[in-house]
Amino acid sequence: MSTAFVLSMLALFGLFIAGVPVAYTMIVAGAVYVVTVGGDPGLVAEQILNGMFENYTLLAVPLFILAANLMNAGNISNRLLGFCLATVGRFRGGLAHVNIVTNVLFAGMSGSAVADAAGMGRLITNMMLKTGRYSPGFAAALTAAASTIAPVIPPSIPMILYALVSGASIGYLFIGGLIPGLLMGGALMLTVMAVARRRNFQPDQVVPLKELPRRTFEAFPVLMLPVILIVGLRGGAMTPTEAAAVCAFYAFLLSAFFYRELSLKGFVHHLIDASRAGASVGVILSGAFLINYTAASENLPVKLAQWITDAHFTAMTFMLMVNLMFLILGCLFDTSIMLLVVIPMLVPSCRELGIDLVYFGVVIVVNMMIGLITPPFGVLLFILNGVTNIPLSDIIRESWKFITVLVVVLAFLVLNPDFVLFLPRALGYQG
Fold first, then answer.
1. In the chain, is it the N or the C terminus that has fewer CB atoms within a 10 Å radius of its CB?
2. What are the CA-CA distances from residue 220 to residues 76, 109, 144 (Å)?
3. Within a 10 A sphere around the Cβ of 236, how many other Cβ atoms?
4. CB 342 within 8 A of CB 349
5. pLDDT at residue 296 in the model
6. Which of 340, 381, 384, 346 is nearest to 121 (CA)?
7. How much is the mean pLDDT over the chain?
8. pTM of this prediction?
């Protein structure tokens, strides 16, 4: 590695530790490399603009965010919650199960763990606390853990970003995330069942079965959104960006005309919010393009792939090493750095070892979501602390059981690639 690259990495991690936003951290680090090697400073802007204008798929990010915001308008979230209450609320520890199932279903609309935790998650956490049956730490920790499902079940913003830096198919990444997302939800529900027996949780409000058809009918249009997404992508009728636009338009029709709960003022607000979120992702990507340029200039991905080949690592050994590394990094760093900086360096090694990029992407996204609830810097823990005022120490103490079970799910997926690739292959994937 050259002196310029070392200085660039020192700037990257130094600024990140100092608390500078990750996007600006990467841009400055990239600029340090360009200037140190004697390059034209204008190359910084060139790399940013080329990366932004050549990635049409990036438009899918604000469109999916807009779709989620519109679906969350008015009482649409409450209808989804009412459906979950009618189906699983009758079990012991019912609201805890409702928390998980609602996150699984809402995952098909948001694509963002942070959006799930700050929006629907806060609502369900408060419902759990009002019953007096659940400790505040348990309610918040469960909400944080359940929110990690959102970026695994399609649509998924992290998977879109992974596809941008790896070249993997977004459609098949989305489809590959379905079974892992459901496994995560099922594992969390089994954990809740065990805790409910040990702590003697009683059933919460039981909705009469005769109410189930009505609540299903009310929630049915909302539940169709992920179906439209998967069918459109699988049938080849839509590109990922077009699918995002269709989802946003469908959400607009439901909110404005079917449920009649979206005002013009609210629509404008959601447009602005989605634009801001998309711009934020764009700035982060700009920095990532620069860092990836420095890595490519140093030929690091090829050197890493050659080192792994010379060391005679098997594909499974490589997967275990990478996942252990990401679990450790997830405790310390923002997922953006791992996803947009580290992944491009690993993709050539995956190709060299014959590791399927859809399988690799889904597993890594699951891994990074676990990092969002892992102390000391688990973002979702801080978000739940901020929106509920529950002490962070209480949330962390209750979170370990959920972290453990999600790591078990991750290990299962690493050791059994067919659980990730079964649906993509059944729908025509040839990887």
1. N
2. 11, 13, 26
3. 9
4. no
5. 76
6. 384
7. 82
8. 0.82
